[in-house]
Amino acid sequence: MNTNPLTYDDILRLFQETNLLMKALFVSQKETDRKFQETSIEIKALNEKTSREIKAINESIGRLGNRLGDFVEEMVRPASVRLFREQEIDVHEVHRGVEASRGGEDIEIDLLVVNTRDVVAVECKSSLSIDDVNQHLTTLAKFKRMLPSYAKKNVMGAVAAMTLPDNVARYAYRKGLFVISQSGDHLMIRNDAKFKPQIW
Q: What does the alpha-carbon distance between residue 124 and residue 180 come to, in Å, rounded to a whole number?
């Protein structure tokens, strides 16, 4: 066992070595902080770029969805006379893009199929969801108030889509809506003979 006491020179040497180590650690810490700040700036810039790209993609998807909705509308419009005559609704007029604003409320209907007694408001989507069905039901509930010139007619609703999940189709059916979808090269109303449309 070494019992020699530390001399003044030993203590001074240890102090100097410790001081050098502390300085090296300080320099290393500053370099680590600098790299961390650079990395944080890079991450922030990357996040901002990613956010911009995601926003652009979402906008493109939104535009595509709108164009696909317009495409569905263009498919349904010429077929609507045949489709609803098959349901014993003798179509006289088909109106596209009907909008109304009254008392601070707005409604928009993609297609309005009309005869002297009946009106069918058709919502056209590229892909139909339960939320879309509920929104259309809300529109139908205020239809006569927003478009009083149709107040004396039987108002019915329909939904049409390129992509129509079975659970959404069943939900729309149960809510009293005609359900229009593609079958091969043709459009068809999927409601069976037992179906009774909701009248607003």
A: 9
Q: Per CATH, is 1-200 categorized as 3.30.200.100?
A: no
Q: Identify which of 119, 124, 115, 127 has the alpha carbon closest to the alpha carbon of residue 74.
A: 124
Give dist(CA 44, CA 58) in Å, integer.
Answer: 21
Tallying the residues shown for the chain, one arrives at 200
State how far the Cα of 39 lies from the Cα of 54, in Å rounded to an integer. 22
For residue 88, the SS3 value is: coil
Q: For the whole model, what pTM was predicted?
A: 0.65
- For the CA atoms of 107, 146, 138, 104, the dihedral, rounded to the nearest 10 degrees, stands at 70
- What letters, b where the CB count within 10 A reaches 16 and e where it falls short, cover 177-186? bbbbbeeeee
CB atoms within 10 A of CB 188: 15
Q: What is the pLDDT along the chain (200 residues), one digit of tens a residue?
A: 555 666 767 676 777 777 777 777 777 787 887 887 878 787 877 777 777 777 766 665 555 455 555 656 677 888 888 999 999 999 999 999 999 999 889 999 999 999 999 999 999 998 899 999 999 999 999 999 999 999 999 999 999 998 889 999 999 999 999 999 987 778 899 999 999 999 99
